[in-house]
Amino acid sequence: MITNIKFSVIYYFNKNWERIIKLNCQEIGFYCKKKGNILVIKKNFAMCMIQMKHCDIFGFVKVYINITGVKNIEMMQKVVKFIHFNIIPNKCLFHSIMIDNITYVIDLKKSLMFESILLNQNVKYNQEKFPGLFIKIENTTCILFKSGKILIIGLKSLSKISFIKDKLYNMLNHSLFHGKQT
């Protein structure tokens, strides 16, 4: 089950973009506060807006918007549309959108025995520092807990979820029944 999608949107704004965004947020009842060089906006999701230094193109500045607290792709699309039409100033240029991280949780509904899993090469575990066992699969990290809950972080697309789950299940099945990974 997806528990969070963190994504980034890039816009080019006029130089007075912060003032306009603060007014727009106030008008729709969103929390909006400047913290250092970051403009933080919250309601049902959280946004951080950061202006890139030395990025002035024809009077426009490049602004990264990091958004988190989104539970699925449909909600992500609604959030982008809402932000574009309710928070973003009218005179701006949309540049791009990118998924930075998808967090996925699996509940095996049974306890895990770490002893056989620890024989794998891509496993890190230090029970004195953290109760979870870390497994790297490609560019993602799977954190396994003895309770049978598994947290997968670092996914960049929905299509990767099944691929990573399959690799993880194959590794776990092999470890549990053969004691090591081939």
Short description:
This protein has 182 residues and is of the alpha+beta class.
Describe the secondary structure blueprint for this structure.
Elements lengths: L1 E13 L2 H12 L2 E5 L2 E5 L3 E12 L2 E11 L2 H14 L5 E16 L6 H4 L5 E2 L8 E5 L2 E5 L4 E7 L3 H20 L4
Antiparallel strand pairs: 1-5, 1-6, 2-3, 3-4, 4-5, 6-10, 7-8, 8-9, 9-10
What's the architecture of the largest domain in CATH terms? 2-Layer Sandwich
CATH topology of the largest domain: TATA-Binding Protein
Q: Identify low-pLDDT runs.
A: 177-182
* Succession of helices and strands: EHEEEEHEHEEEEH
Q: Which value, in Å, is the CA radius of gyration?
A: 21 Å
Q: How is the largest sheet built, in terms of strand order?
A: 2-3-4-5-1-6-10-9-8-7
The largest pleated sheet is described as: 10 strands, antiparallel
Q: Kindly state the mean pLDDT as a whole number? A: 89
**Termini Cα gap:** 29 Å
